[in-house]
Amino acid sequence: MRTLNQCVHCLSVASVILDGSFVIDDHAKATELMRKMETQLPIPARPTSAFVRAMREQGVKIPRDQELQIKRVFYAGDEGGIMCDVTLSEEAKEAIIVSITHLRVPPRHPLAKEIREYQQERTRRLAQSRGSGKPSQVTARPRNGIR
To answer: Is the pLDDT of residue 87 over 70?
Structure first.
């Protein structure tokens, strides 16, 4: 089993600046969704185009239509939200941790509606936190020393 300090490929929201008064996630709702997700693991998901592009820039090739498996979930606070371990294989030397907002769960999955609602609300609140009205841009960057 991998630990987060072995993770070097993470997809996260770039330049989230919070002034302490604007909260992105309802922590109780995010925690409850994670609890439900943990009972359903592994959860099938497909990567978004942004995730595929970001991974390719990091040298990791993931086909757009490849089904990934969410193996574990973590909460990365307001900045990161719900993060998912979608490492491609048990033999992989590097874990791949991605924000749930960059994954698409099949509509027939029992948690699909709740996950999609979380994704939409989080994207909307991130856009509001910047005042841009647009979803934030994503970047992939190494995350050394994550525990």
So the answer is: yes
Higher pLDDT, 8 or 144: 144
pLDDT at 135: 42
Q: Kindly list the domain boundaries of the chain, sorted by start residue.
A: 4-141
39, containing H or E segment: helix 27-40
CB neighbours of 113 closer than 8 A, spacing ≥ 6? none
Q: Beta-carbon neighbour count of residue 108 at 10 Å?
A: 7
Joined together, the tokens standing for residue 101 give 């907002």
- Return mean pLDDT, the chain: 80
Contact (Cβ atoms closer than 8 angstroms) between residue 136 and residue 126? yes
Which segment of 10-14, 54-58, 79-83, 134-138 scores lowest on mean pLDDT? 10-14
β-sheet bridge partners, residue 97: 10, 85
Residue identified by tokens 């995730």 is: 51
Please give the backbone phi and psi of residue 80, each rounded to the nearest 5 degrees, phi first.
Answer: -100, -25
